[in-house]
Specification:
about 15% strand, TIM Barrel, two-stranded antiparallel ribbon, alpha/beta, globular, 8-stranded parallel β-barrel, about 325 residues, single chain
């Protein structure tokens, strides 16, 4: 299925969710290799970009191999968001921008960002309108559902009217965080009422759940988040199943380790290799391997990159 967002035409409809400390350039490239139709950066704070903070700018590092590519902006000040988008457009020339209206983290909502903005539709309207009118690439938004469907639909319509080219709906409330179940009924209702593409997010973790969410909600695409962490191969599995109805065999351990080695090689290539990130990804890429608990303890104790790599090599 082809998904079109504004002037950006995607070869498919499977999107990698923006995730802090996960969706850096090396990981996005792996997801793209396995069939992600569109990838987004980690969320980046507009204030950090306006101040030209080096760490914030580096979060948006891109390469031609991952295009089409979007940058997700976080903030509540329309002027800052516009300025940051122009700075990033000049530096990285992304194909899309996304506004984070869904993050439930306390560190984010205490500043009035992310899902906290859902309580202020007038500010959302100003942000979307100012950005969509000044950018020459499509603008999307990612939201969570509210306590009632009517509230959620009101926000979605505000976003559509203000000029967004597509909207992603995560079927949990701010209070739920990542617990409980994603509310497909709300997502289905929003898709029915909007004319822009609607992308479903939440509880999409395997082939059957992907098919069920698409069929039930009739959404234009799926956004995959936590199920992709340490598992970029999921995009190949989902794409193959949705187009053929056939299940691919599970990845062999050796294949998963090769993905991890490719991830570390990409980190080296783009000068992004750090011990903490490597330890996290070593844990993620080996999740579910038999008798892995003792290995994970060793990884946690590792004091340098060579030690982590030695532990992983011992698995193969």
């Amino acid at each position: 299925m082809i998904l079109k967002i504004g002037k950006v035409r995607l070869n498919g409809n499977l999107v990698l969710a923006p995730m802090s400390d996960v969706t850096n350039l090396p990981f996005r490239l792996l997801c793209k290799k396995y069939g992600a139709s569109l990838v987004y950066s980690e969320m980046v704070c507009s204030g950090g970009i306006v101040r030209r903070n080096a760490e914030s700018m580096d979060r948006c590092l891109t390469s031609e191999d991952e295009r089409p590519f979007g940058i997700q902006l976080l903030g509540s000040d329309a002027a800052d968001l516009v300025n940051s988008a122009h700075i990033l457009q000049e530096r990285y020339n992304p194909d899309l921008f996304d506004i984070n209206l869904g993050c439930p983290a306390q560190s984010v909502i205490k500043n009035g960002y992310g899902s906290e903005l859902l309580k202020k539709p007038e500010i959302i309207s100003e942000i979307i309108e100012r950005l969509s009118s000044t950018l020459d690439v499509p603008l999307t938004a990612k939201i969570r559902i509210m306590n009632s469907f009517d509230e959620t639909l009101r926000i979605a319509k505000v976003i559509e009217k203000a000029g967004a080219a597509a909207i992603t709906v995560h079927g949990r409330t701010q209070k739920q965080g990542y617990s409980g179940k994603s509310n497909l009924e709300f997502i289905k209702g929003i898709k029915k009422e909007l004319s822009i593409p609607v992308i479903a997010n939440g509880d999409i973790y395997d082939e059957k759940s992907a098919r069920d969410v698409l069929e039930y909600t009739q959404c234009d695409g799926l956004m995959i988040g936590r199920a992709a962490i340490g598992n970029p191969h999921i995009f190949k599995r989902l794409s193959h199943y949705l187009s053929t109805g056939e299940l691919l065999p599970p990845q062999e351990i050796a294949e998963r380790l090769r993905d991890f080695y490719e991830y570390t090689a990409l980190c080296n290539k783009y000068e992004m290799l750090s011990l903490n990130d490597l330890k996290l990804n070593a844990q993620w890429f080996t999740k579910g391997i038999d008798n892995i608990k003792s290995v994970r303890i060793e990884i946690n104790k590792a004091n340098d990159v060579d030690s982590v790599m030695g532990i992983i090599e011992g698995l193969g």
